[in-house]
Design brief:
2 helices, single chain, four-stranded antiparallel beta sheet, elongated, alpha+beta
Length: 130
């Protein structure tokens, strides 16, 4: 089985929760900026067992200066695989990626901060090579 590059293993989605957005930057533009920053800290999951089954979300609150406020909350979907070493490692890696990249560089005059942000680390929909 040929492995994909480490960043290809994660389809990254990001939600900004209840944010008024100004004309300077759209919510999508801010999400893309945060995605680009976190993707630099994401080491991937391609070395873990059954990576196509590993899905992790990390919810954080980001202050106006880009710092994290409080501890990130990590979750996995209710229908995810049982707790395994691979899932634990994926959760640890997602947590590390989000915390290592802080403080975040935020676009000026874009969104009212602090803001809750959900980072979703989502694997490919099917097993590679199938």
């Amino acid at each position: 089985m040929q492995m994909m590059s480490k960043i290809a293993w994660v389809s990254f989605a990001l939600s900004l929760i209840s944010a008024p957005v100004s004309a300077e930057a759209t919510e999508d533009e801010v999400a893309m900026e945060l995605y680009q920053q976190v993707s630099q800290c994401w080491v991937g999951i391609d070395d873990l067992e059954r990576p196509w089954e590993l899905s992790v979300s990390v919810k954080v609150t980001i202050a106006s200066d880009g710092r994290l406020i409080g501890d990130p909350a990590i979750s996995t979907p209710a229908n995810s695989i049982p707790q395994t070493n691979a899932l634990k490692a994926a959760r640890d890696r997602a947590y590390h990626a989000v915390t290592k990249c802080a403080p975040y560089s935020l676009p000026s005059n874009s969104i009212v901060w602090p803001k809750e942000v959900d980072f979703h680390f989502i694997p490919p929909p099917v097993e590679p090579g199938v």
